[in-house]
Amino acid sequence: MNVATNGYHYEYECAKLLRKHGFSKVSVTKSSGDQGVDIIAYANGKKYAIQCKFYSSPVGNSAIQEVYAGAKFYNCDIAAVITNSTFTPAAVELANATGVLLWANDNIPIQIPLHHSLMRTIGVLTTIFGVLCAWGAFSFDGIKYSALQQFESILIIFTGITALLNLKKQIAWLLTLGGYLLLFLLSFIISWLCSKTFSITSFIFLFLAIVTYNNILQLQKQHLH
User: How far is CA 146 from CA 103, 162, 187, 195, 198, in A?
Assistant: First the structure.
């Protein structure tokens, strides 16, 4: 983290740090009337209320009390306090009793699971590929079975977008899986109609379907825990 010069600057540095750890929709609250919450952020399907303390001494009980109440006010699932310093023993004791997370020395021990990041990357690549396919299918004349290929390109874009949405809506995981399976079948049919005995694209979609299915299993295990 860059060296902050004051508490206001520290809040924005903490927001940057949260984004690096995979948190999404990270927003700094207004400076006045924030109800003890400096940052609202999302991770692993949970909404976090976070208070930032730029201190030269250990943080005490009041920060835990404030963010605990603020989390209720903002309807957050988890409350946390992050500081460049440490916490007093009394603050640690209160945090343990209330369930407030304490992140000392700018250390955020939370990372977005790898399968979430993987799905986002796959979603970006799939969407870009879909746009390129759509450009080709809709821009050039004389393409065999152009209607099928145009539909395929639209489906690729849709599937890529649903993969990008996997962190927010669980139904998107199932839509993504169904999209890749349908693309595998559709690509195979187009290849067969064009008298091609082998289609790399078909097997790429099948591979992505398998990866997506594995990520769904990982997501289910996460919720069970």
Answer: 56, 24, 13, 15, 19
Highest mean pLDDT among 29-38, 171-180, 191-200: 171-180
Q: How far apart are CA 28 and CA 125, in angstroms?
A: 30
Q: Is 30 exposed, middle or buried (0-12, 13-18, 19+ CB in 10 A)?
A: exposed
How far does Cα 126 stand from its chain's mean position? 17
Q: Is residue 111 predicted with pLDDT exceeding 50?
A: yes
Burial class (CB in 10 A: 0-12, 13-18, 19+), 104: middle
> Cα(218)–Cα(181) distance, rounded to whole angstroms?
19
- Indicate the residue type of 28: V
Instruction: Summarize pLDDT for 42-64 with one digit per residue, the tens.
Output: 887 789 999 999 998 999 999 99
Q: Is 35 left (phi over 0), alpha (psi -120 to 50) or beta?
A: left
